[in-house]
TrEMBL record:
<dbReference type="GO" id="GO:0016491">
    <property type="term" value="F:oxidoreductase activity"/>
</dbReference>
<keyword id="KW-0560">Oxidoreductase</keyword>
<dbReference type="InterPro" id="IPR029479">
    <property type="entry name" value="Nitroreductase"/>
</dbReference>
<feature type="domain" description="Nitroreductase">
    <location>
        <begin position="7"/>
        <end position="63"/>
    </location>
</feature>
<dbReference type="InterPro" id="IPR000415">
    <property type="entry name" value="Nitroreductase-like"/>
</dbReference>
<protein>
    <submittedName>
        <fullName>Oxidoreductase</fullName>
    </submittedName>
</protein>
<comment type="similarity">
    <text>Belongs to the nitroreductase family.</text>
</comment>
<dbReference type="Pfam" id="PF00881">
    <property type="entry name" value="Nitroreductase"/>
</dbReference>
Length: 184
């Protein structure tokens, strides 16, 4: 699968089924995430790959009602960084930008492997940090839910979530987010 196909194929499905997590898979995803560009090669991203049942159960305590579908996943990746890890430009915000690029590489690789890699922001950061022993000076940027896509709609989904299982949500038109030569 080429990059264009991976981008077109990638979807944030919520009807999931677990699959066998291997160390080779984790290392493969991490390797591809590590290839992302970063300001002065600081590579400020950090990942915790959570796949053991006991560790997942602790992590699931951080989820609100609307994200209970995550419980069907085989793995959740906690993404975290700190401005202290960034290059000395733009007050450290490049840590977030660079980590986002790394996440995109990881998500596209997972897509290429036939997996769903669904990033979410709906979680209690303090519970995530406590469950995974993430130091206080770091910020949890996202959780990436990794699983196989299930052909059966999850009973944990809301009507709106079910609708997005069937149809890709609308994307903005070119004119809504792009400009030519200057902002008009």
């Amino acid at each position: 699968m080429d990059v264009s196909r991976a981008i077109e194929t990638r979807r944030a499905y919520r009807s999931l089924e677990p699959f066998e997590i291997t160390e080779d898979l984790i290392k493969d995803l991490a390797h591809h995430a590590s290839l992302a560009p970063s300001c002065t090669n600081t590579q400020p991203w950090r990942y915790v790959f959570v796949y053991k049942k006991e560790a997942l159960e602790k992590l699931f305590e951080a989820l609100p009602k609307g994200n209970q579908w995550v419980r069907q996943a085989g793995m959740v990746i906690a993404v975290f960084t700190s401005k202290d890890l960034a290059c000395n430009m733009r007050n450290g915000i490049y840590a977030y930008y660079d980590t986002g690029l790394s996440n995109a590489f990881l998500i596209l690789r997972a897509t290429e492997l036939g997996l769903v890699a669904h990033p979410i922001a709906g979680y209690d950061e303090n519970i995530v940090k406590s469950a995974l022993n993430i130091p206080e000076n770091f910020e949890v940027i996202a959780l990436i839910v990794v699983a196989k896509h299930s052909s059966t709609i999850s009973p944990l989904l809301s009507e709106k979530q079910i609708q997005t299982e069937h149809t890709r949500p609308e994307r903005k038109k070119f004119e809504e987010f792009c400009y030519m030569n200057k902002v008009e």
